[in-house]
Amino acid sequence: MRKFLQINFMQMILLLFRKAGFFFLFFLMSACFYFTDPIRKAEKALRKGDCKQARHFFLLDGEKGKIEFAERAAKACVSHSAVEAVFFYDYLFRREKDMAKRIPIRESLADVYFTNQRNYEKAIEEYFFLKGQTVSMGKKYLYSFRIALSYFEMGKWELSLKETETLLSTRLKGENLLSVLFLLGRVLLMQEKYTDAGKVFKRIQHEDPVYFKENKLFFYLSFIYESRKEFHQAIIELRNFQNTSEFLADKIERLKVRQSKQPGVIPL
Fold this sequence. Notes:
The chain has about 270 residues and is mainly α. About 80% of the residues lie in helices and about 0% in strands.
């Protein structure tokens, strides 16, 4: 009986060791998977701000958990690497089937192109797509304005002018109206249509003197008069705001010198 009990006890001990070994092996394999899982490595890279490395590990993994990671990575990478942010937003857009949810993703993608990459050609493409969707009038204004501004930044004055004129036909008010007029004035300046540009800046001054001053639009008016050698009027425009900076005072003095060299002109 005692011998039988001893044998059973030894068998039980061996069984426990076997089970313990199995659990240890299972724990070891789980730990190895945890630390070598590509998404875990991608998370670690993202915390360090290394979006390129995060994208590398992201591409090594399957599909499990990738949507959630891509959402975090897209937002985080905007300030670190616009190229990688575009990749993650594009990944999210291609996998989202609900159009209502796709629009905000496309908006974020367009904003990265416009603001971070300054890839105005791609931004225009995205904003035109968004304009064709069912969105609010406020968003349609924003998309159109950014298209017009993108054309301006690309030096495509005629296309920018066309967009701003279309915007102005929609009865804009307040800040939206002033922003479009400001852009229109700059477009006309680049086209050397100084008389028309001057009228636009004067309109802004009439609509909102505070906006006119805060955005230093008096410089544009002064430039227009100076380009036509109307130094007297150019000086007047700057004198109204000369107490805002020493630069203005210096500019006024230089204009006076140029004015004094004009025949038959009495200096101010």
